[in-house]
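2024-03-11 09:14:02 INFO worker-7 job=invfold-0412 stage=load source=structure_tokens
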């Protein structure tokens, strides 16, 4: 059995170094990661994958069409991405995490792992919840800058939909650290007799410009609206619209990359 201290070691190894697409933004701290360190990291990842799979609420597999739809995109082919996700409310608040696995490497191999972990704290009946969060990831031969967030969340319901919003201070651990702000909105709901689930997230944040010779701040938008047809309580088929503005290194344009996905609810 894995002890709590080992969990901490695994988490630190996996989440050491914000989406795997962040690799394309040049948010890289070290382009010469030692192979031995990478082997240790991915061994820890496999252990964490097993344990988080036991805790997850759903597993998703997406096929990303960006190579076929956008000739400007440098991806050499369409690729698969898998996601493990969990949301757990309790009397003290709630915990959320997801882990993304991008298979956009050579021959469709695993190229990048990205995770977000957040915790919100319920204080009596107060409607605003303190929010803390960690974002980070790893890829072959690179590490990605950590991001740490702390702020306040305001959840609410509107009809059949649940919403959560939060505004947070964001510390991006670049070579030159970046002190920033992020606003996030999350939604989830079912319509058509629970056959159609509409859910997703949009993030809007600032960060230091990372291009050579660039200075100052920029604002980035990234979101993942999802639409799922539920065949039953376990199996769904749908799409995720990976929506962004000034997110990719090759363009500052508004982009939408759809996927075809399947989801299994545990």
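2024-03-11 09:14:09 INFO worker-7 stage=emit residues=266
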């Amino acid at each position: 059995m894995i002890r709590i201290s080992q969990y901490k070691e695994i988490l630190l190894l996996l989440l050491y170094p914000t989406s795997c697409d962040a690799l394309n933004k040049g948010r890289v701290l070290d382009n010469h990661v030692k192979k031995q360190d990478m082997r240790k990291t991915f061994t820890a990842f496999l252990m964490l994958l097993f344990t988080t799979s036991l805790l997850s609420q759903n597993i998703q597999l997406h096929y990303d069409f960006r190579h076929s739809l956008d000739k400007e995109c440098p991806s050499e082919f369409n690729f698969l991405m898998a996601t493990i996700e969990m949301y757990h409310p309790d009397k003290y608040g709630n915990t959320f995490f997801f882990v993304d696995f991008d298979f956009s490497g050579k021959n469709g191999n695993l190229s990048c792992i990205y995770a977000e972990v957040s915790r919100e704290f319920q204080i009596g009946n107060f409607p605003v919840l303190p929010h803390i969060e960690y974002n980070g990831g790893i890829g072959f031969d690179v590490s990605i800058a950590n991001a740490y967030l702390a702020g306040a969340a305001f959840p609410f319901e509107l009809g059949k939909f649940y919403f959560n919003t939060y505004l947070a201070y964001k510390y991006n651990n670049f070579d030159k650290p970046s002190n920033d702000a992020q606003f996030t909105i999350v939604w989830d709901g079912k319509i058509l007799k629970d056959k159609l689930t509409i859910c997703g997230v949009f993030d809007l944040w600032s960060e230091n410009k990372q291009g050579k010779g660039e200075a100052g701040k920029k604002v980035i938008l990234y979101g993942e609206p999802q639409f799922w047809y539920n065949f039953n309580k376990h199996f769904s088929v749908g799409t995720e619209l990976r929506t962004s503005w000034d997110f990719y290194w090759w363009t500052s344009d508004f982009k939408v990359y759809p996927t075809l996905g399947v989801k299994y609810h545990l």
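2024-03-11 09:14:09 INFO worker-7 stage=report msg="The two ends are 22 Å apart (CA to CA)."
2024-03-11 09:14:10 INFO worker-7 job finished
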